[in-house]
Amino acid sequence: MKLAVIGVGLIGGSFALALKKAKAVSHVVGVGRSAANLKLALGRGIIDSIAKDAGDADVILVAAPVGQYPAIFKSLQGSKAIITDAGSTKRDVVALGKHLSRFVPGHPIAGAEKSGAAAASADRNLPFSAAVPTVTRRCSGSW
Q1: What does the pLDDT read at residue 124?
Q2: SS3 per residue for 26-94
Q3: Closest Cα to residue 66, out of 41, 40, 36, 97?
């Protein structure tokens, strides 16, 4: 499974590391605004490549600030990937996600006093990370 993480910080990076540790992904693409943070994530093995968009990923995690979601979700329209998010709010996110055909809202419990790819950990408590492969298998036959 190819995963794209839009926003490779504490939560996005931890999500990617947890799936890599579980051997649930074959390739992780990092997408973000900070070239320095993406290079750090690449160097730490959180991501396998850097891209300007999610491309042909099977699953996309949007882990950017919620204020960026309107533009990000607009760019994801027409994607065949399962799209989930790590936003801390849900009402506006779910409303935006209605325009995405394969959107599964998510919500991590993973706060910390640190941020960015430097703070990512495969052992961070991400209750929804283990569900992604199951969601992928179950949803793939439905479309």
Answers
A1: 55
A2: CEEEEECCCHHHHHHHHHCCCCCEECCCCCCCCEEEECCCHHHHHHHHHHHCCCCCEEEECCCCCHHHH
A3: 97
Say how far apart CA 120 and CA 126 lie, in whole Å: 11
Q: Which residue has the tokens 């919500």?
A: 107
Give the Cα separation of 129 and 16 in Å (integer).
Answer: 9
Tell me the two tokens of residue 42. 């690449």
| Percent of the chain whose predicted confidence (pLDDT) is above 70 | 76
Instruction: Report the chain's mean pLDDT, rounded to a whole number.
Output: 84
> pTM for this one?
0.80
| Cβ neighbour number for residue 88 with a 10 Å cutoff | 12
Helix, strand, coil percent content, the chain, rounded in steps of 5: 40, 15, 45
What SS3 class is residue 107?
Answer: coil
